[in-house]
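User: Hey, quick favor. My workstation is busy. Could you predict this chain's structure for me?
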Amino acid sequence: MKPFFERAGAAFAPGPHTRGPWSPDSMHGRLVAGLFAHVFEREHHEDPFHFARLTVDMFRLPRIAPVELTTEVIRSGRRIRVLSGAMTSEGREIARSTAVLLRRAEAPPGTVWTPAPWDAPHPDGLPVQEYENLDWTPMWETRPIDGPTFGGAGRKRAWLREIHPLVAGEPLTPFVRVAGSADFASPIANSGDQGLHYVNADITLYLSRLPVDEWVGFEVASHLAAEGIAIGDTTLYDPQGPIGKSTVCAVANPREVAP
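Assistant: No problem, here it is.
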């Protein structure tokens, strides 16, 4: 499969298959999150630190045009590191991101309540989601667990995996893989029986650990909406169990699209 981006000097040049659902000449928001994760990890990751949180604020629709990212270290402590990043394209800033890295350590003693184990079947035994009547092509593979992942008023669960490299010639690491998929929280949590009418303005990804393979499971944990503002919350899994959360805030958008 073609990569989403090619290196072009200091910039990342997107291919036409980076198109998102909201405009024919705009990139998908999930790629914005993926690029921030990619650059943060390449420039600032160091064991035994772990990316525990990634927040991406998307305040302009990203056009299919080269983008550049700059990062800086806000705090570098013994147990916590905080990073900040900005993305620019065509001479203007289109998104910002913050990452929090925490130092791995031995678990403290005692027992803390946790939810029951996820009862989802392994993705290898599930059919691939087919999307019909779309004017664009979804850029991932989805395997629904309890019916369609888009539309309908029921609670949704699904497995998702990448089918394209992010940057040509550069590995798709577990952190970049899950960061790039985190935007899926918006369509799976915010779509209903009349389609998707919310466009998310941010993504906040929390990770207690990294996924062990290419599959990331999504389960809608909560959806709240009032006066055109929605909050979608999903729990994330891999085949071994829960790994984190992806939460989005979104604003009503009158155009109906699939994820």
